[in-house]
Every structure is written in structure tokens, then in C-alpha cells.
């Protein structure tokens, strides 16, 4: 785990190239995340996005 990262055990995440990812633990360090979509009518999980993503 990154020293300056506090994992939020309520937000699982395995996107390791996100700045909010907690190192060796698959959790996000944010207190909440913004989930959105890039589709007008999302029907699949691939249609949703984590709008809180920030490239590491």
C-alpha cells in the first residue's frame, strides 16, 4: 500500500494506473466517487465510467 494512501474499504477498485488507487490493495482512496456514462442509454457495464479517474 502507498504510504500516503488511506484505502476506502467501501470502494473496491483494480485500476492501478489511477492516482486514487491504493497500491497493493484494490481500493480507492477517495471518500466518494462519481460514476457516469458516455452513452445516451447505457445497457452494459462497459457503458459506465468512473468520472473520478485521474491518471497516475
Q: In summary, what is this structure?
A:
The protein has strands at residues 8-12, 27-28, 35-37, 48-50.
Jot down its keywords.
4 strands, elongated, two-stranded antiparallel ribbon, mainly beta, 0% helix, 56 residues
Summarize the structure in words.
This protein has 56 residues and is mainly beta. The chain has one domain (8-50). It has no helices and four strands. The protein has strands at 8-12, 27-28, 35-37, 48-50. It has a two-stranded antiparallel ribbon. A two-stranded antiparallel sheet has the order 3-4. The model has no long low-confidence stretch (mean pLDDT 92).
How is this fold's topology laid out?
Blueprint: E1 8-12, E2 27-28, E3 35-37, E4 48-50
Antiparallel strand pairs: 1-2, 3-4
Kindly provide the radius of gyration, computed on alpha-carbon positions and rounded to a whole number of angstroms: 12 Å
Between the first and last Cα atoms, what is the distance in angstroms? 15 Å
N-to-C SSE string, H for helix and E for strand: EEEE
Number of helices: 0
Report strand %.
15-25%
SS-based class: mainly beta
Measured as a percent range, the helix fraction is under 10%
Form type = elongated
- Tell me about the largest β-sheet: 2 strands, antiparallel
- Overall pLDDT confidence: 92
Strand order of the largest sheet: 1-2
How many domains comprise the coordinates?
1
Query: Could you list the spans in which at least 5 consecutive residues all have pLDDT below 50?
Result: none
Number-wise, the strands total 4
Amino acid at each position: 500500500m502507498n504510504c500516503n494512501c488511506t484505502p476506502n474499504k467501501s470502494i473496491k477498485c483494480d485500476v492501478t494506473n489511477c492516482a486514487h488507487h491504493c497500491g497493493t490493495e484494490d481500493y480507492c482512496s477517495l471518500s466518494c466517487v462519481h460514476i457516469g456514462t458516455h452513452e445516451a442509454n447505457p445497457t452494459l457495464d462497459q457503458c459506465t465510467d468512473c468520472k473520478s479517474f485521474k491518471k497516475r
